[in-house]
Design brief:
This protein is an alpha+beta fold. Helix content is 22%, strand content 28%. Strand 3 and strand 4 form a beta hairpin.
């Protein structure tokens, strides 16, 4: 009687494993470009956040001459710009 219980539990485990293996364990996404814009600056900008209510983008600039953050609208105009590189208050020598 003990052997039959063990066999039943082994077969149950096998059935559960077979069911789990048949279910895909990955997801597929398809990205679609809806709109693009160009930021009006000579430095490389990485967009790191988006505020949908105000339609503003938060960007980070990182170059040898300038490191900082900027806020721009959905057509690429810079609304606010803060340089973080320097030796003054609220500035850093290296980020």
């Amino acid at each position: 009687m003990i052997k039959s219980i063990i066999l039943l539990s082994k077969s149950s485990i096998l059935i559960v494993l077979m069911l789990l293996m048949s279910v895909p364990t990955y997801f597929q996404f398809k990205l679609k470009k809806i709109k693009d814009f160009e930021v009006e600056t000579l430095f490389n900008v990485d967009i790191i956040d988006y505020f949908p209510k105000s339609k503003l983008y938060l960007g980070f600039m990182n170059s040898n001459e300038r490191e900082g953050v900027l806020l721009n609208n959905n057509i690429g105009e810079i609304i606010a710009d803060k340089n973080l590189k320097g030796q003054g208050p609220n500035q850093y020598v290296q980020i």
